[in-house]
Design goal:
The structure holds 2 protein chains of 2 kinds. Chain A is an alpha+beta fold. Chain A is built from 4 helices and 5 strands; from the N terminus they run αααβββαββ. In chain A, a hairpin with a 7-residue loop joins strand 4 and strand 5. In chain A, helix 3 crosses helix 4. Chain B is an alpha+beta fold. In chain B, 42% of the residues lie in helices and 19% in strands. In chain B, strands 1, 2, 3, 4, 5 and 6 form a 6-stranded antiparallel sheet that branches. In chain B, 17% of the residues are buried. Classes of the chains: A alpha+beta, B alpha+beta. At the A-B interface, helix 1, helix 2, helix 4 and strand 4 of A face helix 1, helix 2 and strand 1 of B.
Chain lengths: 199, 224
């Protein structure tokens, strides 16, 4: 038999149902919707982060051919400098002989008498970069020549090699030969080991 | 006198209004349930979609990560190589063409003067690194010291000579002044006769008119 409620009981039931409904909605909101929203926010942040990283990575990856081409060009430049201008150790040990091979023809061309040549141990070039593929040799030269011969010798050196600096020069009169002067010349030259490292 | 007789029970009463309270309650409850279900369903669908997107991006990241590291290493190598070449270029461009100076000097020296020594010195000056500020107890961390200034090349040319010309003063001054005009002036910041450098030749065989002189030229510094 269908239970019949009085008007008052029906209203009480409705009030209880309303309160229960509100409590249910609140519970669902607090324990389901809010955590879901939080998780969604976290996922969104992770997605944004990953998408940003991926975009950056894609750009970086697409620049690889450009980097490789630039490095290849610079290595070719370095090879040219090493081949054409750098002082190399002869038979793997002596930078002095390497420089002598370059200077002797120039001295001969200028009729300059090259008496002695000493080369100090190379230092990194540029300074404070020990990993640099090139180094700097300092060479002390002593010789004899007239003013013109000295000037020509220096001119030949400077036009032969843009990577040689005249770092010191002393020209003194020769006591017994007024036409020839004593010369002390200090050169700074780019040098490279027998197997120069790649860039 | 009126008499009102109620022949039905309380629960047998029926509401005669078109929209009853029960109807509104039922409709409201249904709508609330529908809204809740829609929100929850939408959130679930959105969460699944987001999770799939995150998974796709993660997969892409896992795939590209190694190549990205290679690219970064390559980029660092390129930067290092470019810095090296830039430094080498600066060093190469800091060179002075001394044969040109020697040629110009030969033309500029008056015939009455005899140079006995030409001395060119070029030194690389490496300025000291700035000392970091000492931190006292309770003080804030001081800012890092600025990077050390770059090294530079300092160049001097010293000419020593003798003369017995009656116009020695003017001739030596003329040679000094030649460093203020082209072509000897190229890169020269000053040319001076140091105090006491123009004087009587002190050697025992010197005649009373013999003079010795010295001219010091300082060139502009070149930063490396």
């Amino acid at each position: 038999m269908k239970k019949l409620f009085s008007r008052k009981e029906a209203r009480q039931l409705a009030a209880v149902a309303l309160v229960s409904g509100i409590a249910l909605i609140y519970g669902i909101w607090t324990f389901a919707v809010v955590p879901m929203r939080r998780a969604a926010r976290d996922r969104c942040a992770k997605y944004t982060d990953l998408a940003g990283k991926n975009l950056k990575a894609q750009e970086a990856v697409s620049a690889i051919p450009d980097h490789e081409a630039a490095l290849a060009a610079m290595n070719a430049d370095l090879d040219r400098i090493v081949r054409d201008y750098a002082i190399r150790p002869v038979l793997g040990s002596s930078y002095q002989l390497g420089l002598r091979q370059r200077l002797d023809p120039l001295a001969q061309k200028a009729a300059f008498t090259l008496q002695s040549l000493t080369v100090q141990n190379p230092e990194p070039l540029p300074r404070r970069r020990p990993e640099a593929p090139l180094s700097l040799c300092t060479a002390d030269i002593r010789g004899l020549g007239s003013y013109e011969q000295i000037r020509d010798f220096i001119a030949y050196i400077e036009s032969d090699n843009p990577y040689i600096h005249v770092a010191g020069l002393t020209i003194n009169t020769h006591p017994s030969d007024p036409k020839r002067h004593r010369v002390a010349l200090r050169l700074e030259c780019v040098s490279a080991p027998a197997e120069p490292p790649r860039l | 006198m009126n008499l009102r007789v109620n022949l039905i029970f309380e629960h047998e009463r029926r509401d005669c209004r078109v929209v009853t309270f029960r109807f509104i309650a039922g409709l409201g409850g249904s709508l609330a349930a529908l809204a809740l279900a829609t929100i929850l369903g939408g959130a679930l669908v959105s969460a699944r979609r987001q999770a799939a997107s995150v998974e796709t991006e993660q997969w892409a990241w896992d795939r590209v990560q190694e190549t990205y590291a290679q690219s970064k290493a390559l980029s660092a190598r390129r930067r290092q190589a470019e810095t090296f070449f830039a430094d080498l270029q600066v060093w190469s461009e800091a060179r002075r063409e001394w044969h040109e100076t020697l040629s110009a000097l030969a033309a500029a020296v008056p015939g009455t003067l005899q140079l006995t020594e030409i001395r060119l010195t070029r030194t690389t000056v490496i300025p000291p690194a700035p000392v970091p500020k000492v931190r006292r107890p309770g003080e804030k961390k001081p800012p890092p010291p600025p990077p050390p200034p770059p090294p530079h090349l300092a160049t001097d040319l010293q000419l020593t000579g003798r003369t017995s010309s009656p116009t020695a003063n003017a001739d030596v001054a003329c040679l000094r002044d030649a460093f203020a005009s082209h072509p000897l002036s190229n890169g020269v910041s000053s040319a001076v006769i140091p105090p006491g450098a123009f004087r009587q030749d002190p050697s025992p065989r010197a005649a009373p008119a013999d003079r010795i002189f010295e001219i010091v030229c300082t060139y502009e510094q070149k930063t490396l």
